[in-house]
Amino acid sequence: MVPAPLLDVHPPAGSPNGEASTSHQKSQKQIRPGNLRTKAERRELQERQRAAKAAKVAANGAPGKQVAKPKEGAPLASAAKPKPTRASDTQSRPAAPVATRAAEKAKAGQAVGTVDTTVKNQARGLLIFSHFGLQKPVSAAKGDIHPAVVRLALQFSTFKITGANARCIATLTAFKTVIQDYITPLNHSLSRHLMTYLSPQISHLVAARPMSVTMGNAIRQLKLEISGTDPDLPEQDAKDALCRKIDTYMRERILIADQVIQETASSKIKDGDVILTFARSSVVEKVLLDAHASGRDFSVVVVDSRPMLEGKRLAAVLSEAGIQCTYLLLPALGSIISEVSTVLVGAHSIHTNGAVYSRAGTALVAMMAKRHSVPVVVCCETYKFSETIQLDSFSKNELAPVGDLFSSFPHNKPRESLTLENKPNLEILNPLYDLTPPTCITAVVTEVGVIPPNSISSIPVALGRLL
Amino acid sequence: MYSIRQVVGSREAALETALVLRQVVSKARFSNIQQLIAVIREVGRRLAEAQPKEHSVGNTVRRVLHNVREEYNSATKGATGASRNVYSISKFVLQGQPRKHTGGAAKSEARITLKENDPSDPDSFARALKPVLMEAIQDVLDELETVYDNVSKNAKDHIHSDEIILTIGHSKTVEAFLKSAGHYRNYTVIVAETAPSYQGHEMARSLSAAGISTFLVPDSSIYAIMSRVNKVILGAHAILANGGLFAISGSLLAATAARAHSTPVVVCAGQFKLTPLWNLYHEHGALDFADPSSVLGFDEGKLVERVDVVNPYYDYVGPELVDVFITNDGDHPPSSVYRLIKETYDDDDHEL
To answer: Where in or outside the cell is it found (chain B) (predicted)?
Structure first.
């Protein structure tokens, strides 16, 4: 099982001083006049600390994956060693303040591998991306986790279940099982205790993969329902009522919403259209199949990209249904965009300013389409609305695990020519999402109508509900 | 060798072409300049036809022709002096080529007495002119060999400390540029994978081995990370006469995303990539397509039968998306590329 990837470069929990020192050294590069030592002494001290750190890391096990925090130091330490070429002239100057801090920490008794200058320089670059998926690793099965949730977490972390709608439906279904199996302990009321019972289950899922906005909204609604349960109701009735409410939520806000979107969007597809879509959205798939079933004659261009290469599956499904498909990878987009009549994409979530948070690559597709005056239509149910506003793709994103988890490299490419794992000085990042600015989007099709992206914020208010 | 893509890389192709032309000229027999030009053009045409997509072949031939004519003109200086007194657009055009002319005049001061079409000694013309021609071709060769060094000369002025540079594909010119800057500056490079050739992987490995802090990202995240990128540095396959370029597929995405974020786009290329061509009729670049099995492998079976696959090799990036061309001959904006082409090649040679 591959837990959610972390991109914590420096071990924050392990040695907070390490972080402080690196950020401190960002601003200071002069020699501290306090603690002057000879170059040789400083070098010797550094070597000793490096060796101590390496020994500690070797005891922890093989470094390589960004799994637990103490292991974070390992790729850096091993990166530091084969890199003595790194600007040896810059090493003398920062070596002094480095050595002084190192001396202090050595006295504090902590291994300080991150103090090395080369590592500091590297750490500075990587800090910029440390916003991605900041995760606190949850220890395995703290408390008792329901087996349905355990199985679901496993499916999430191995990417067997992907997609905002699929994950939400799977989560709600699993929670129905959990609620049915739940027994209120004596002297507790269901409405209050059930929530505390569910919290570790939810944390377990979040540890497997960061929660999607859809899951978040659904769970929030569920908690609202739980707290509103009539305390006088017998337990089984209460549980049945909750399960019915979950069913209603799924049916109304996902399945029926999808049907309405299907009909609305497919009525926009005319004969002779060339529809372009990116990766694989469950809603767009339904729209295209529906349009084809109603006899419309159109062709589809499926644009696909690593890391997940989901579009291949969509192309298979569509071509099976008899729709004429063209398949290409994202870099080839420039050649084909001038022949496209509409771009149809799905969304993971949509923000109140109209920005669409969707699979990485959607922003590029929308940008190119806008440049060629091709309308971009986003299909999004109202339960995907998020109250926050994100300014760029960094504030909230998720990294896919390093390596060829999705078998997305072509088979005719020899594996030696590819870089599949991190190396010294080389880090692989696979962001899974990106943010499409509202200016690139022409319209959003929801189950309550087709709305321009700027008006997204008024929809929940107009419908009289809090999302 | 060209037609089966055995010579890979624009610079290698250019070098080979120059070497072939040197051999041809050294062995050629001609009694006047027209014959020599015709011989070179014939050879050049055949080489260019063997690999029509490798523009550097044709460019090198044009370059050699230009140098040959220049040497010939300066060797027979007296005859061409009169044309300078004409008051017309042609004077403006001629005076628009100051650099090359003064260079040519300085080189061959020794006035060679040339006897053209001498019936008694048909080889005298050739014999007299050959050393000068060899020098001219050697100039072209020298320039090709020092391309990477000259492009990287000012690398440290273009890249500053703590910058984040985005690049795509595996251009050797860009690689040399970044490594040269890496000796003086501490910065980070993000390399996009560039599917389906995945050349980005090689580039990332090479840069990280040289000690530059590197990130490898899939092409899908180019827009996502662009807000943090300070500069985009691209390589070119060919630079077109309007200042646009053919570059590896994916470059258009990077350049457009950079424009959307007002990030400067820098193109590093040798001057041998300057091509007197226009891309008028096709949105996409160069009509050169690569093997579709790297997009959808034959192991996909049923899918392959039913689905069309498109795999263009190059993108066309318009001049409005590029901020500067860094060549071995200095930095130029896209708007002055037409002038560079006028200076480097002769008008007669646009069609070989």
So the answer is: Cytoplasm, Cytosol
